[in-house]
Amino acid sequence: MSTLEIHWPRHRAPTQQMWSWSSPNSHLTVTLLHDQPLRGSRRVWLANMSVRGWSDTSEVVVKFARGREELAMLEAEAALYDNELRYLQGSFVPVCHGLFKGSGGMQGGLVLDYRPGRDWEKCPPHYYEQFSIATRRLQDAGVTHGDLFSKGHFRMTSNGPCIVHFSRATQHDCHPYCEELQAFTSACTSLGPRHHHPSYDHPPMYEQYAMF
User: Fold this and answer.
1) 2-113 — its CATH code?
2) Structure confidence at residue 35 as a pLDDT band (50, 70, 90)
3) What architecture is domain 118-207?
4) CB atoms within 10 A of CB 186
């Protein structure tokens, strides 16, 4: 069993405990960094995470769910990370640290590595091939994202392209062609010749607050 200790901003709520019976035996502590969720979301918070026994901390996001319907969606997303997306974690999708549930079982939190970056449409055309490779890896894993073109869901980070926000994702078997991949390839083709962008170094601060 793993535990998650959540430190909320002082004026919002006291320390909260959640548990996971499917994650490896670990004890995580997350301290929420701001007084409100990330921009564009209601239940996604930026936090610092520490693991008991380790001195290092890392930035993560915590996706909270409350109620039967929201929790079911979060459980489905966590299942994708545990199965189809397992071998893409750390490269084309964030590392997932587990789904934790609170007392009563009607609230939960999914902990993911924070991967800020620049939206794919704002990147120079020479990055489009990397984005296409990431989409093909997602197809090979048997996953249709379902909302890939929304702002912030497909981004270039300092470690390469990253796909986030799998709450609408589904399993698929559409070989040899995938509609989502074809649509993205067409978008890259149409945008590439008409757009000129400065070289990409680091994501600007205003783009770091996006959906997960």
Assistant:
1) 3.30.200
2) confident
3) Orthogonal Bundle (1.10)
4) 10
